[in-house]
Amino acid sequence: MKTRVTEIFGIKYPIVQGGLAYLAYAELAAAVSNAGGLGQITAATLRTPERLRSEIQKIRTLTDKPFGVNFAISRHDGRYEELLEVAIEEKVPAISITGGNPKPVFERLKGENIKTLVLVSGARQAQKAEELGADAVMAVGQEGGGHLGREDLGTMVLIPRVVDSVSIPVLASGGIGDGRGLLAAFALGAEGIEMGTRFIATQECVHANEKYKQAILEANETDTVVIKRTLGAPARALKSDFAMDIIDREHKGATYEDIKDLISGKANCNYIYDGNESEGFGWAGQVVGLINDVPSVQELFNDMISTANKGLNRMENIIVERTHS
């Protein structure tokens, strides 16, 4: 496949693995990069410069392909600068920025040979990212897992809206988990995709507890809920008693201080690492309704490309038939 995304980031397929808090480590990122996409490790959950440097060096022992480091800057509480310096010193190929104001990151990256992506949830954010110098934007629809935009824009409308608003390439995110989603993204004007939830249910996502993966397999498209909406930071998680309790407290007027322990990274890890359903939650998008297996990343890529090609042939036949008729 050849798009501006593959050319800019030096990858075979325009498929980017999301930051995936507490899950995006070297093993998964390397597998995605080796399969032809852009794998990422996440800086926020590594916390210290030493651990980030070690993870960057580890991924380089597992792949010689391009990879990225994700900076969920809102999760750093403003203390991401030391981690950013490590990424620059290690000359990572790409950096993605999610949450918060990316301007300080771009100011520091000036003059560095590092490609940049910014996660956005609307056209105005995409335009701002382009103004700052982003190489590409990833637009996430409200179907996605984890943190979302506040406007509840679906991927089908959001992607062409963002594509029409910027000149840099756009990657589609939210509700994409197979070759049909990849082909649909191209049809909407995107030049690639970002996936998060689908990569959790892979063999190389070794940090995810089997109970978490099994829950993704068993869930259908209605088995996710949005928490933290009343706090102005909506985020989609697997539906569970724990998640519903958070929503119930929100409806009763709970403040951030009231529920901060329930929505914390620790609560997230209680479930995704330990499988403790009574003390934690797991992020997931509506695409869980399309996930029925736990393949290797390479098997997933092979299936996606095959499915996309079959879908393309089907579309070409439909268009030819309509033209001839």
What does this 3D model show about the protein?
The chain is 43% helix and 14% strand. It has 14 helices and 11 strands. The strands form 2 sheets. An 8-stranded parallel β-sheet has the order 1-9-8-6-5-4-3-2. Strands 7-11-10 form a 3-stranded antiparallel β-sheet, with helices on one face. The longest helix has 28 residues, at 297-324.
Which H/E pattern describes the elements? HEHEHEHEHEHEEHEHEHHEEHHHH
Strand order of the largest sheet: 1-9-8-6-5-4-3-2
Identify the overall geometry. globular
Tally of contiguous helical segments = 14
Largest sheet: 8 strands, parallel
Query: How much helical structure, as a percent, in the residues?
Result: 40-55%
Unreliable runs: none
Strand content: 5-15%
Q: What is the β-strand count?
A: 11
Mean of residue pLDDT values: 95
- Structural class by secondary-structure content: alpha/beta
